[in-house]
Amino acid sequence: MFASYSAADTYYCHFKVRPKDQRWIPVSLTVETDLKKNRVLVKGDVVQTVDGYPVAGHEAPATKRRRVFVFETENKSIPNYPKVGSNINDWKVRYTLSVSTEGSTARLTAFTNKWYVDNTRRVRGSCRLKQS
What we know:
- By secondary structure, the chain is an all-beta fold.
- 0% of the residues lie in helices and 48% in strands.
- The protein has no helices and 8 strands.
- It has strands at 9-15, 28-34, 39-44, 55-60, 66-74, 92-100, 105-112, 120-131.
- An 8-stranded antiparallel β-barrel has the order 1-2-3-4-5-6-7-8.
- A hairpin with a 5-residue loop joins strand 4 and strand 5 (66-74).
């Protein structure tokens, strides 16, 4: 499923997502970190490449209580209105995943460039950490 490199941590995350948002907000995510390259690979039910591969992202500066991962993908399942013009950036979704270092709580924020819909969603969930 993931490329072969030395992963330091793997997070398995699940989120509570409204049914109508499940086309562009993931219900589950797997995040593999590569601390040497400051890179993460993320795959979920709606976060993956067209070919089904994980999406590359990066780890943002962490705090004492949270690790933060940022990644972006293209998703054509975002609600669209045909009378409104669109461009290539309208389909991009930027995700920010914040995971507690003390427990298993997680927050996921999804942001799109679609100005004519409610373009930001925040969901809560949990992540399980597997260290290697």
